[in-house]
Write a structure and sequence with these properties.
Blueprint lengths: L1 E6 L2 E3 L5 E9 L6 E7 L6 E6 L5 E3 L7 E6 L4 E6 L8 E9 L4 E4 L3 E5 L2
Parallel strand pairs: 2-11
Antiparallel strand pairs: 1-3, 3-8, 4-5, 4-9, 5-6, 7-8, 9-10, 9-11
């Protein structure tokens, strides 16, 4: 079992930056690939960025060049640095821990990001 707690969301103007954090507790952090997902109002949850236990990253096209995902295994934390934010980035951002081999996945409660002037 893994508990995930997101933080760092808020209201920011277009062009601004935010850094989201997701702190994990419980089972061994390093066995999980970690991801950030976004759910905009009226839309399905979608992958924004992911990072494997070995540090390999993957980004949605909309996030490439603006967002950076990273993880600190010593702190059991994954981060999402978001720069040049746009109104379309607005939504609830969820942290996910996933282990495909064990077929398990855990979600955090989400943190709201609003990009508006």
């Amino acid at each position: 079992q893994v508990q995930l707690v997101e933080s760092g969301g808020g209201l920011v103007q277009p062009g601004g930056s935010l850094r989201l954090s997701c702190a994990a507790s419980g089972s061994s952090f390093t066995i999980y690939s970690m991801g950030w997902y976004r759910q905009a109002p009226g839309k399905q949850r979608e992958l924004v960025a992911a990072i494997t236990s070995g540090g390999v990253t993957n980004y949605a096209d909309s996030a490439k060049g603006r967002f950076t995902i990273s993880r600190d295994n010593a702190k059991n934390t994954v981060y999402l640095q978001m720069n040049s934010l746009k109104p379309d980035d607005t939504g609830v951002y969820y942290c996910n821990a996933h282990n495909a081999g064990r077929r398990i996945s855990f979600w955090g409660q989400g943190t709201q990001v609003t990009v508006s002037s």
